[in-house]
Amino acid sequence: TSAQIGVTGLAVMGRNLARNFARNGYTVAVHNRTVSRTKALVEEFGHEGDFVAAETAEEFVAALERPRRLVVMVKAGEPTDAVIEEFAPLLEPGDMIIDGGNAHFADTRRRERELRERGIHFVGTGISGGEEGALHGPSIMPGGSKESYESLGPMLEKISAKAADGAPCVTHVGPDGAGHFVKMVHNGIEYADMQLIGEAYQLLRDVAGYSPAQIADIFRTWNTGRLDSYLIEITAEVLSHVDEATGKPFVDVVVDQAEQKGTGRWTVQIALDLGVPVSGIAEAVFARSLSGHAALRAASRSLAGPQPSPLSESEAAAFADRVEQALYASKIVSYTQGFHEIAAGSEEYGWDIDLGAVSAIWRGGCIIRAAFLDRIRAAYDARADLPSLLSDETFAREIADAQDDWREVLIAATRQGVPTPGFAAALAYYDALRAERLPAALTQGQRDFFGAHTYRRVDRDGSFHTLWGGDRSEVSG
Ligand code: NBP
């Protein structure tokens, strides 16, 4: 038997992806470093489709029809390099290695280059949706060569999630590391979405005085409107869950220290390198980091704060509506920042990424799937060279309608001492972009004063320096 596709690395993700291929009618060769996992897969799920269990790398490669398509689902980092080193010598020109792990795009670029020299296509592929997505249909972000996509595309389309309009949630994002780059930014946006939702929850609880169960209901209502999304939906589930052991709201018995695996951090690190302001995503990463500093927080607990001033019931309901506006406006800003980073990466690496297509493949399967993404796609469809999502008329109008409430929410948060770094960073970004003049002119003056770094003038071309230590006359810089 020859298999159309092979999966090596059969932990949760690889196993479910292999089953997804098999359930879609493909013959799937399966392999894992520890053979027991391969056996377990075939024993448990062999009835779901055609699997070819391979114990050795040689058997695995021999089981694949040519050109070979070999999906690697191992722990990202050194294990990926180890697996490539193991398999590449057994492959022939034209074969494809598809890395579906959460690799750093710079590693993907390096691996792609090295394997291209050996005639092998290396297809770094972002896969989102967790284990459920891997089984029932993930959002798939493949990079690599166009040629490899011609061969792989139809298979990926089959196993991917489908958006509400039936479109498969997969597209050829761009060459080499483009797919993993886009997956990275997806995760950064996911961090920002989660942080904004967390802030909305905290405001509804600490300013409006609602209980977790009441807040779950508010989120359920929001989920029927423009905020309709997977993350809002599961937030309501988590908030309404009651801890069995104590009878308390589940959210009150969980230690409030958020963990992270690192893709959000990469999004911010790369944004710093590219010079793209992703302040909302950065605040989300920092907020998780701050939450984990238990000793620092304990040492700060007695610091002064404002007097609490609870809202009346009717004020609370009006406040909840305002929070919805603030959340929506902040969400527009964080997607604006994320898409800016993708555009900048695309420019830097010559990827030619279609931003509308990226928003389209995030509509299903992935963690940030939302009705909202249809509107982003519409914005880029209407104008592919949109300088920023905020320049789209619809989004600009929605923010215009939301901004008074957005500001009121931040005033209330500040007055009551509720931390809202995500909402605040988003509004600051919006106001900074709007500003006629920024204090950057003063920054330039300071830089020229202490370091003779020169400045440009609004009224004449060229660069200039003021003789600050002398008669303060201006010279050409
Ligand atoms: P893990 O990330 O836990 O990796 C376990 C797999 O890697 C096992 O198959 C293990 O083999 C194999 N492996 C390791 Br570890 N070192 C190896 C080596 N040197 N040589 C060969 N195989 C090696 O699995 P996972 O949670 O299923 O995730 C797989 C990939 O998918 C990761 O890159 C992860 O970041 C990504 N991921 C994505 C999502 C998502 O939502 N997109 C979710 C979870 C994970 P063994 O059985 O012999 O130990």
TrEMBL record:
<dbReference type="InterPro" id="IPR006183">
    <property type="entry name" value="Pgluconate_DH"/>
</dbReference>
<dbReference type="InterPro" id="IPR006184">
    <property type="entry name" value="6PGdom_BS"/>
</dbReference>
<dbReference type="InterPro" id="IPR036291">
    <property type="entry name" value="NAD(P)-bd_dom_sf"/>
</dbReference>
<dbReference type="Pfam" id="PF03446">
    <property type="entry name" value="NAD_binding_2"/>
</dbReference>
<protein>
    <recommendedName>
        <fullName>6-phosphogluconate dehydrogenase, decarboxylating</fullName>
        <ecNumber>1.1.1.44</ecNumber>
    </recommendedName>
</protein>
<dbReference type="InterPro" id="IPR008927">
    <property type="entry name" value="6-PGluconate_DH-like_C_sf"/>
</dbReference>
<comment type="pathway">
    <text>Carbohydrate degradation; pentose phosphate pathway; D-ribulose 5-phosphate from D-glucose 6-phosphate (oxidative stage): step 3/3.</text>
</comment>
<comment type="subunit">
    <text>Homodimer.</text>
</comment>
<keyword id="KW-0311">Gluconate utilization</keyword>
<dbReference type="InterPro" id="IPR006114">
    <property type="entry name" value="6PGDH_C"/>
</dbReference>
<dbReference type="Pfam" id="PF00393">
    <property type="entry name" value="6PGD"/>
</dbReference>
<comment type="function">
    <text>Catalyzes the oxidative decarboxylation of 6-phosphogluconate to ribulose 5-phosphate and CO(2), with concomitant reduction of NADP to NADPH.</text>
</comment>
<dbReference type="InterPro" id="IPR006113">
    <property type="entry name" value="6PGDH_Gnd/GntZ"/>
</dbReference>
<dbReference type="InterPro" id="IPR006115">
    <property type="entry name" value="6PGDH_NADP-bd"/>
</dbReference>
<comment type="similarity">
    <text>Belongs to the 6-phosphogluconate dehydrogenase family.</text>
</comment>
<keyword id="KW-0570">Pentose shunt</keyword>
<dbReference type="InterPro" id="IPR013328">
    <property type="entry name" value="6PGD_dom2"/>
</dbReference>
<feature type="domain" description="6-phosphogluconate dehydrogenase C-terminal">
    <location>
        <begin position="179"/>
        <end position="469"/>
    </location>
</feature>
<keyword id="KW-0521">NADP</keyword>
<keyword id="KW-0560">Oxidoreductase</keyword>
